[in-house]
Amino acid sequence: MLRTNFTGLQIFDKLLVPAVIFYNNILSNGLRSDRMLLVSLFTTMQTMSHCMLVLGWSGGKRRPWTNIEHLFWGVFNQAWGAAAVYPLYCFAHVQRFLEEEEDQPKNHEIGPSNPEEAFALVPAAILGAITPGMLLFPAFTTTFSINQRQGLIALYRFTPLALTMAHSLFVWLQGKIPGFSDLKSKQHASKNFVAASLLISGATAATGHVWALACSEHEELRRTFVPAASINVASPTVIADGARDFLQWDIFIIMAALVPMTDLILRSSRSFRRLRKQYKWIRILEDSFFVRAAGLTLTSGLLSPGAVLAIVLAMRAYET
């Protein structure tokens, strides 16, 4: 039975129904491989969302359109999938790191220079880390009714708006809680807060992906991550099969988009440049994109591409 009423406003409910149709069967079919696929993918996507939030600052300053842009990418991702969104996002933001080859200190900065804004990224990262649980929890229990499960799927569509507003809310709350006013004087702590938020978010993606790998035996691992050669359109599980295939290709394209982006951020870091001067094998990495790409792809396959990107961004944030 398909639920079609969520908000009471038909104009919004029509936009929510396709997602309910897409996820309902794959969340309720009882297959461990599908649960692990969802855990790996959604923890990675929430980490990528946090990386997008952090990259909304340029030279330590938040651009006026940052919230609108973050909401745009989030809604775009919900509507069309990460495979469509992440390559476009990376293409739109790659110029920033190409310009930083000149190593200008202000342009090199990742995240906010304001310590209050930087600290607010930490609870924002924690909120983002637990958000996928709202969608995924029904896949791990039988206590939810069909109506409740479909309601949570629809509710998850609003997470881009919630996460976009969350950071500003946490900044505002700091001004209302005694003891946080002294953060303004701790300018040097900004980079620590930014790096910590990225590591929290990255650790979530790594935990989700490693859990998915650990819970899958050889044949099940292939079923979890490798798209099927074909889909039987006459099968009663065709909707779940199609959703699984779509999400599996998502993972491959996410990796194809994030590995080059991560490589560029890594190469533009001061730490990488210092290591290049000290170690010959680092110079080999510097000279060969294919060697670096192979290493980052392998690491992303073990930890998730979102986790690797977050870790590299944390390193960049801390060194500024």
From TrEMBL:
The chain crosses the membrane at residues 36-59, 79-98, 118-140, 152-173, 246-268, 289-315. Keywords: Membrane, Transmembrane, Transmembrane helix. The keyword Electron transport does not apply. Coiled coil: none annotated. This is Zn 2cys6 transcription factor. It comes from Colletotrichum scovillei.
